[in-house]
Write a structure and sequence with these properties.
Layout: H1 33-45, H2 49-62, H3 67-79, H4 83-96, H5 101-113, H6 117-130, H7 135-143, H8 152-170, H9 179-182, H10 198-211, E1 234-240, H11 247-258, E2 264-270, H12 277-284, E3 288-291, H13 296-304, E4 310-312, H14 320-323
Parallel strand pairs: 1-2, 1-4, 2-3
Helix pairs in contact: 1-2, 2-3, 3-4, 4-5, 5-6, 6-7, 7-8, 8-10, 11-12
Length: 324
């Protein structure tokens, strides 16, 4: 395979390939399928979704039975809101390998997000049949619920069941390495019940702390004395997956536009997404803009390196990556 000369270089330099690694050796453009997969995965994790999609499609043209390309293309398409096509590629992966756990997981997640809970439940149950030790899927099944529930007694019954499942999970000695990949579940929709969620929110947070202690990370500059802000601008950061055509962007756009540039130095962090008009407007309001990779530890370190005074979450709990 060949890397397109005008594509961004996979080394992460932000330069075009022809002006970076492509200058070193023309032979470097010729890749095996495995090497091409690594480059496509790099693009996907760093938010360059169109480049990743193009390479995955090239791989499948050359080698139509490459299962991981179907699966990763499905993930990439879903990140671009191409839901039906994403489902199709995950299902093609399962046609080639019916017991591919990761494809069952991804399809369960897609149908959960789309509100098709019974379909999602079927895929999650299949995951646990194939891998009974899958902690993330156990948490997903415990938290599976409609966005809007009907009768008050149904809401109360769900909450009792949910708390009992959390209590069971808290005593099960479970472990997660990558919570953003393995579970990706928050308690955001409990607020729709109109009840006191404190106990349930605490128990879910305790569960995540227990199964993944690295979530208790504190940035190094927050552990010691900071530079007095009287002598400089306040460094404030905003991080969200919804800096796009979404209510969060509409609310935050005006706030960012009207923050005093004399008092504040503004940092904006996006997660990989299509840069629509709202996203571009948000980006233009920032002194510093960065697209975070979909790797929690790396994204966390990139934010910590900015040594912010304030990190503001406009939508904490609405989605899992920024929650973690």
């Amino acid at each position: 395979m060949k890397i397109r000369r005008n594509a961004l270089c996979p080394c992460g330099s932000s330069k075009r390939f022809k002006y970076c690694c492509g200058k070193l050796d023309n032979q470097a453009q010729k890749l095996t399928v495995s090497e091409a997969m690594e480059i496509a995965d790099h693009f996907r994790q760093n938010g360059q979704l169109a480049n990743a999609e193009a390479i995955y499609r090239q791989i499948l043209q050359i080698q139509p039975d490459w299962i991981q390309a179907y699966h990763q293309l499905g993930k990439t398409l879903f990140l671009q809101n191409q839901v039906a096509e994403a489902i199709n590629y995950h299902q093609q992966a399962l046609q080639l390998q019916p017991n591919l756990v990761i494809a069952h997981q991804e399809l369960g997640d897609i149908f959960r997000i789309q509100g098709q809970l019974e379909v999602a439940k079927t895929y999650f149950q299949r995951v646990l049949e194939l891998d009974p030790t899958d902690t993330g899927t156990r948490i997903k099944l415990a938290t599976l619920r409609p966005v809007i529930m009907g009768l008050p007694q149904d809401i109360l019954a769900f909450r009792r069941q949910f708390e009992a499942q959390l209590d069971t999970l808290l005593t099960s000695h479970l472990h997660l390495n990558y919570p953003e990949r393995e579970t990706g579940v928050t308690n955001f929709y409990l607020a729709y019940h109109g009840l006191n969620d404190k106990i349930l929110q605490i128990k879910l947070a305790q569960l995540y702390e227990q199964v993944c202690p690295s979530l208790l990370y504190v940035a190094p500059h927050c552990q010691g004395k900071s530079i007095p802000i009287e002598s400089r601008k306040i460094k404030i950061g905003f991080v969200s997956r919804f800096f796009k055509n979404h209510t969060i962007a509409k609310v935050m756009g005006g706030i960012l536009a009207n923050l005093s540039r004399e008092q504040f130095e503004i940092y904006v962090f996006f997660l990989p997404q299509f840069m629509d008009e709202s996203a571009v407007f948000i980006q233009q309001q920032a002194d510093y803009f960065e697209m975070l990779p979909l790797v929690l530890a790396t994204a966390r370190q990139q934010i910590a390196d900015k040594q912010l005074d304030i990190l503001f979450y406009p939508d904490i709990g609405m989605e899992s990556f920024t929650y973690f």
